[in-house]
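Input sequence (263 aa), recorded before submission:
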Amino acid sequence: MTAPDTPGSADAVVAAVRVLVPELDVAAARRSSAGASRETWTLEGPEGEPVAVLQRALAGPGRPDDAWLAEAELLRRVRAHGVAAPEVLGAGRGDDALGRPWILTRHLSGETIPRRILRDERFAGARRRFVVDVAGQLAALHAVPVDELPPLPADDPLDSWMAIHRALARPVPAFEIAARHLAMTRPETGPRALVHGDFRLGNLLVDDGGLVAVLDWELAHLGDPAEDLGWLCVRSWRFGGPRPVAGLAERRDLLDAYAAAGG
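Predicted structure, token format:
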């Protein structure tokens, strides 16, 4: 749902947040970024300090409005189980002053840019403990009881990815052959668990002490926890680092730390 008078200026965003979350003292807003499905605003307090982050759907077709409320509820529930997810301050379907679906979370300090995390000296300590931190978070989120979660997608990942590929109407034989091979060699899986769906550098907030928060939960679903472990090892998410796990560690290090954390 998109209202015709959706506020697009910083002043309009501030005015809308003051109405929707009056307990938050907001003086200014600045547009931080716009991804494929949402725009991000950093909200500042009276002294110019960042106090909250607003994510709002982009105009046009996108996720169902209720999916934003489900994502907010998911963040609340995983936080209750010790997962380092952002604290939700508010959320809406878009039938309000913000005009489009939105989630407001408390601001957290840290870095998400992979090349800085991988190379800057200030993150040397965080790099040393990275595999322990991420394994602990993965073990915690995979252990959240499924019956305590809001409704989440539970589609077969191979079927979902191939449906997207075929919808492009550009046949790529290599993809078709790979999909056939994966279907024929599909490993056995256990009970379904919460899966983040995009657990990788770029969606992890890090400071010089280590992992601060796990961000970007819009692809969360029920599935095999091995999805998250494998996604963290994809070559694209190493950003030039030499090792398989986010460019920073060996797969055995990740699996051992995951098992030690209860995963």
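Checked by second reader. The two ends are 40 Å apart (CA to CA).
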